[in-house]
Amino acid sequence: MRLKSLILGAVCLAAVATPALAQTLTAITGGRVLTGTSVIENGTVVIQNGRVVSVGTGAAPAGARVIDARGKVVTPGLVAVDSGLGGSEISSVAGSDDLSNGANSISASFDVSYGLDPWSFTLPVARLGGITRAIVVPSHAGGGGGGHRHDDSDFAGVGDGGLQSPGLFAGQAAIIHLAAGTDILVKPRVAMVAPFGEAGAGIAGGARGAQFTQFKETLAEVRLYARNRGAYDRAGLRDLSLSRADLEALIPVANGTMPLIVTVRRAADIQQVLRLAREEGVRIILDGAEEGWLVADQIAAADVPVLLNPISNLPGNLETRAVRMQNAAALDAAGVIIAIKGNDGSHRVRETRYNAGNAVSHGLSYESAIEAITVNPARIFGMAGQFGELRAGAAADVVVWSGDPLEPLSNAETIFIGGAEQAPTSRQFLLRDRYRDGGEGAMPPAYSR
């Protein structure tokens, strides 16, 4: 009975919030406020109706619930990029992983937002690490965030029905919030995902040049389809290598309104991807870019943002011969907008802030590190001013820390998402409390001590 209650309680973590508090006028006072773009000493953050009302140094407004943050640090909620939160419970258990797709007729049109699970046990754990929003991406060959698969030995070609098999595209990313409740989706279809470099070459036929040629031909087909939908409906158009669903999904990529997240590592591959983006008029976001520091000036000139893990420092293959922990600092110094990733798409997302701290220890400024885990992800995915920053009108995603958020010994003591205060616990904490105290249910019912 006790075990059933424990499991029920853990599941309810995702469904029980404090919605009344989202409407309550609340003032967080006296803390060192890192807005995402500036620092306010002895600051006051006022929130109500799910939004930030004001950020400054004034006193708490009359009638407000006051949270004393003296000696503490107040930040926007952190934003996880290249994440699998809510989309994968255990990547090795296929039935719990909704980030992977192998259908040759559904590649670019694969939409991860339909597989999101608000009751996932991974969400409260990430939330305790100060994560309040996340960009969830489909898994793909060579990927290292939301999920990755290494089955890039299958070469692309014309499969059943004349469709690409496997497809060059992994699918479309979505934005979620991590507040307890039954609907975590913020915005679906915010970016397309595709591997390039060694992984992309493996999909396309074994050579990088083959993938670039196939990519250009695919965009040509998409544009042909977009101009001739009527002819396509009448079967008056030549055979195309993608399904109608995939063609439709790629139109925003082809016309430059949807960004393409490109997983790429080698400096030479980064150069070629930048060239491809110029030639085809597509917007790209580099993911990984371990050798990005070698071509940082070119990335900056192209105004292309980068999602990276700053603690990558060991060459795993010939794509990462020049990997170094100063990558984040070098890209930032060149003027590249960077967003820092955690160490795993689902279970170690809470380590995002640790990685930011490591980047600081290798030359990245503290201010840039905070931006890279708050405001920059929002900017990169078209949500600037809506979250990731403490400013009037932004979502009231606010975290009060016991100390420096980039210091591992600091804890997120109070967490608001959309103005609602979140329970400071997780399934792991419930299990700890159950077995640590040896209370009811700590032993099987028939067991006598």
From TrEMBL:
Leader sequence residues: 1-22
Segments forming domain Amidohydrolase-related: 330-411
Q: Which UniProt keywords apply?
A: Signal
Q: What is this protein called?
A: Amidohydrolase
Q: Which organism is it from?
A: Brevundimonas denitrificans
